[in-house]
Amino acid sequence: MSALLTVRGIDRTFGAGPSAVHALREVTFDVEPGTMVALVGRSGSGKTTLLNVIGGLDRPDAGTVVVDGDEITGLDEDGLSRLRREKVSYVFQTFGLIPVLSAAENVGVPLRLAKADPREREQRVRLLLELVGLADHAQQLPGELSGGQQQRVAIARALAASPRLLIADEPTGQLDAETGLAVMGLLRGVVESEGVTAVVATHDPVMMALADRVIRIADGQVTC
Amino acid sequence: MLRLVVRRARAQWPLLASMLTILVIGATLLGTCTLLITRTSERAVEVSAARADPDTVTATAYIGAVSAENARSVATDAREVLTTSIAPFTTTTTTRASSVLRVLPGVGRGGYLSAIEDLPSRAALIEGRWPRGHETAVLQSTARLLGLRVGSRVHLGAELGIGSNPPVDLTVVAIVRPLQDTGWDRDPLDGTGFDPDPLESTGARSIKAYGPFLVDLGTLLDGGSALSRLEVTARPDLSAPTKRGLDQLTASLLEANRRLTGTLGDRVEIQRVDSPLPRTLLDARNQGQLTSGAVLALAVIGLLLTAIALALTGRLTTGVRTTETGLLDALGTSRRQFIATAAVEAGAVALIAAVLAIPASSFLYAALTHLSPLSGAGLAAGATVTTTQVLLVVAGATTLALLHIGLGARPTGDGGADRHRNRELLARSGLDLLLVGLAAVGWWQLRAQPSAAGYRADTVRILAPALILVAGSALLLRVVPPLLRAAERLALRGRGFTLSLAASGAARRPQALAAGLLICLGCAAATFGTAFGATWQTSQHEQADLSVGTDLALTLTSAPATGQSAQVAAATGGILSPVASQNVVVGQWLGDATSSPRLVAVDTRHSGAVLRGHLDHGRDWGGVTRPLVPSAQVAGVPLPQDSTPRLTGTATGDRPIAVTPQLILQDDAGLRTACTGDTVVLDGRPHDLPGCARVPGLRVIGVALGVLGETEIQHTSGIDVALTLPAAGDRTPWTIRAATPELDQVGGEKVEVSGATIRMTAAVSFADSTPSSRVLVATAFADPGPLPVVVSSRFARDVGAARGSELKIAVDQTPVPVTIAAVVPNIPSAPGEAAMLADVDSLTRALAVRGNVNSPVTAWWVGEPAHPGQASALHLGSVTTRDAVVERLTGSPLRASFPAVLRVLVVAAVVLLLGGVLLHITYDVQLRAVEVARLRGMGVSRRGIRAALLGEHAVVILPLLAAGAVIGALATRLVAPLLIRSDTGAAAVPAAEAHWPWLAETGLLALLVGACALAAGAAVVVQARRADAAHLRVAS
After folding, report:
1. Of B495, B931, B1033, the CB nearest to A112
2. Which of A25, A63, B442, B657 could join B464 in a cystine, given CB atoms 3.0 to 4.6 angstroms apart?
3. How far is CA B824 from CA A117, B596, B838, in A?
4. How far apart are CA B764 and CA B772, in angstroms?
5. Where are the domains of chain B?
6. Residues of B with CB below 8 A from A116's CB?
7. What pLDDT digit, counting tens, does each position of B24-46 carry?
8. Do A112 and B940 touch (CB under 8 A)?
9. pTM
10. What ipTM was predicted for this assembly?
């Protein structure tokens, strides 16, 4: 089976001279499709930078990233935007919901970006909210939802455009243990049910246990 | 805590700088308005006094009945009283004096001496030289009547009355002609040179007065003649007056009368000091007060805008500091400590703002005064700092900064957020209602203000515009959210992302509308200011149009001379109309007891070109006066220049009958004058009527014969009078009638025109003793019947008349029937008065057929004059031009502050509005940096982000600008006309109408939209560019 995500020799340095910070050094790994990979490391180890590079939000100084056959390091701005719309989705630690939109409207954002038919969009949104167990909270604003509910909305939104790769940056970092566990279970579930490939940055041992594979990163280097 | 304030200020310097900038703008506006209200207002009175008409700043001591021995000392003392009263201003004085009548050689003749210090500027020397010592100059008319020539000797005998001063012998050394408009009305005989029945004749003897015999002042005062009148006029040099000096002068002049009485004692019988100067200065101060009130009203709008801008800044500051405040709150910081922190910050900002605003307002004030209209009004001034300015700027900055304390001390706890929001909503609703209520009361008060003159700048006039603008903005802001939500619902139906996000952002982000009041009110204030300025300017022009009535009005100081029209036409080069303007009697007048209806008669053939003044319903003067134009012109019989008509007549019976002929002459321009001949006995012999044909182009259009005879005995005489003219006229039939047929003294009247002879016959009864009952009038036109007139709406209202009504008026005691052809708001030159407009040709015909052949013309009106400046050189009377009145109304020192402050208000409103937009957008950039980065994470391109954010700003800002423009337009329509008063403080006539200058307003709105677009565009570009992984990293 060919890898959905191929990362080769990624370097990323912030700043220059003596104060330069080498966030990533010669990072190389592959992720098979339909698997959930836990990216583990201490704060400042380079997890978020690596996820940003994989998602095309940041450009590496060296190396290549291939997502579903697309060499993203060679894409221009529009190409990267298209990649994020069609193949890659994010789940942020702080949920990243648009505060003025309801849960359903937040989930519908990727579908609007894809200019989906309104009727199809509504059906898909309803389905996804049912999937994450929030069908009854569709019209509530993010501010009216709990942290766990917000993160579940964020996951539903990440799945809305049927991405090939789901990137989650410490999705349980802002949640209590019980809620975090539920969110992790949900992520595990959608990976299996939707056939999505997920790369999840986490400190949580439970999350590591739920992952198909764990990649450890320290001082910008993959250690195993 | 102080360290916290300092460090926070370092970290949040852009926000604090914005607050400081807004505070400086507000305080600068306050300081500038303070200087305009105080310094410029004072200076305006000074400049106004310096520029005043010389006749309005003189002081004259009028003294009557001075004995010969006291003449010199009284004149000296009177001069001394005036010069010391006017001190410290330097003064020039002129003295004129007239002696009592003295006996002239011949029976029943008297003459008097006069001395005028500046005689050469008041009379033209026709022959000889100015007199010295025992020499005299006489008027041309006096010389002709007494047969005097240069070199003649004149003996003025004993004084009439009880005087016993010796006679005076003089040598005539000059023949002079009085210049018009140079004060000859103060001469005992008004400068006419002769009066058959002078007011000042002494005793019961009937005497004819001749004079003056103009002598040197020293000769008169020391020459042993008692003075009947002595006038000393002092003219202060007000070229560089000060407020204190003018105040002192006013007080001193009010005391001068008492001082003169005390000084002159019993040396004189009559004395008084009269000066229009105190009234002139009081009027100037009152006008300044009126302007200050208007300036204050505009300043209130500016300060309100500043306060709202500061409130916005405070709100944004609170938003930015939410986390910090929450943390401090959680750490147990008390409310008092929050207030103390806010007070330290506000105090520092207020102090810096005051320090900056004081010089800024001084420099802005200096710059403003160097721009039109203040510079044109002579009010240019350097940068200055006054105590009042400093105090008000500091007070203003502190007060405004207190807003910041209030906002900074607000609790931010999460608990009970809904309750807090509900409470705030309730408070806002209550405030809105209160504002609307106050605005309604203000508007009602403005509508109900009296139309009479008043200068007091009352609170309603000062606050009403600001209240109406704020209340309107607050109300419209209530409407904007539902509209935005409706737009959002529409946008959400589509499948696209950009529009839906923009619409949702606009409709659901409360902070977007936080700036709404400032944007809406700023736009409203700017559009209102622009439209108010245009409305004010238009109203001043309309007031000038109506008050003058034409482009150039030359009001004659004496009856028009034959042929004067050619002289005026040649000098001014415009379209000329003789004008009769006088009060008339209208039946049982029901109007104001203090004013009589006024009749204005013009040449209606040229109404469109000559008359000025706003008409309603799109009417124009040409159309309105069309029914007044006489159907045919009067031809008459030509009277070549220097020709002499001849009158021959006979009368039946054995009693002597005489007639006094009056020829009604018409010149090329239609001016009708009468030439009165000597009384002619109807003895069958021809009698010449010399002196009538002095100019070319005259035509005889009528003849009035006053028939004289014995009236003690009843008898009737048939008269047959023939007037032979040098040339024949056309075949137009003449008509004849008795001037007063109702008295039944003239019958069987007939007229025949044969070649150059006009023959009139009638049977005249002498039963009535009144000579005017036997006047026969033959005219080259028929009785015009009822005179068609256009009346003012006030006249129609007061009299209860309407179109088609017939009335009878009396013009110079001559009854004239009139019929109302139309009703208009106002008659030119008679704003707000009960007045009527007629055709001067028709009027003179109506008067002539009733025996009143004197010219009713009192002025010349000129439309579109080519040389308006040359009219005054004719010395025929006072000249008023529409342009000069417009200049006086708009650019006089006492009013120039108002348009200047209007401009400042518009600029301040635009700057504060743009500042508000910039603040709001900058805050948005900060607040939503992470959110925008996440949108990038979801695959929204930078272009998409830019479009969505720009769309959101456009959806918020454009409706607010539109709402502001609507409020500005409504406020202009509702308030601006009510705020505009005339220069006397009375309601403007014609009533001001709201004027919306489309070009200026479109330009202003385009500027606002463009500037907002630029600000939003720049912010959005930065926002989209900064939406990168760095923000996600920070957030995560």
Report:
1. B495
2. B442
3. 67, 18, 13
4. 12
5. 2-47+283-544+890-1035, 56-282, 558-630+786-875, 637-662+673-779
6. 495
7. 888 898 899 889 888 888 888 88
8. no
9. 0.79
10. 0.81
